[in-house]
């Protein structure tokens, strides 16, 4: 993909949308290969160029900014990832709407990154809001809703709310068993976390 991006730049010019897309895809491939630091660097560069050429509110620009934050988080830069997710989520809400799937994903990634950075109380509050919005937009049984509920309970427990976390994990486990199946890995994860926090009482 790097060679393709180079060829596009040579034939069409560095600012052509196809060149920018090829650069974005190259960074995606690096991220999927686990090269998160390099992917983050490339996403930051292509996002800046997309903003200059296509506009700050273009969907491609917003996507590259989201992926930049994601790659930083995967590389362990959780606090910076959280900051960038908050910024892109705000812009996505303004451009795409508060209920757009990209906006909801960036909000969930923001909360998740805060939790990874150790800000569990704030992450729990934000994840509860995301879970409620996921349920309203996608439905209570959607896997993304269930995932947000599980993450809310995780951060609540890590913030010291062991009793409430155990209750939420029990509810999430029951709903995941009903929707995904009793043996689904997500169901087992919620059941395991429920048992863990029961032992904290």
UniProtKB/TrEMBL annotation:
Organism domain of life: Bacteria
Name under which the protein is recorded: Tetratricopeptide repeat protein
Pfam families: TPR_10
Residue spans crossing the bilayer: none
Cited InterPro entries: NLR-like, TPR-like_helical_dom_sf
């Amino acid at each position: 993909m790097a060679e393709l991006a180079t060829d596009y730049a040579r034939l069409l010019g560095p600012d052509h949308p196809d060149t920018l897309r090829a650069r974005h895809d190259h960074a995606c491939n690096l991220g999927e290969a686990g090269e998160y630091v390099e992917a983050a660097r490339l996403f930051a560069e292509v996002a800046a160029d997309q903003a200059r050429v296509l506009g700050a509110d273009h969907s491609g620009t917003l996507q590259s900014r989201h992926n930049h934050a994601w790659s930083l988080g995967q590389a362990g830069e959780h606090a910076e990832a959280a900051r960038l997710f908050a910024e892109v989520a705000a812009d996505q809400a303004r451009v795409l709407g508060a209920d757009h799937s990209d906006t909801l994903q960036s909000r969930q990634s923001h909360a998740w990154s805060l939790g990874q950075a150790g800000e569990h109380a704030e992450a729990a509050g934000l994840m509860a809001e995301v879970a409620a919005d996921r349920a309203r937009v996608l439905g209570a049984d959607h896997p993304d809703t269930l995932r947000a509920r599980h993450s809310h309970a995780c951060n609540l427990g890590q913030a010291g709310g062991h009793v409430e976390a155990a209750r939420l994990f029990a509810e999430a486990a029951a709903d995941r068993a009903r929707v995904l199946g009793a043996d689904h890995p997500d169901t087992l994860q919620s059941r395991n976390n429920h048992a863990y926090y029961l032992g904290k009482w």
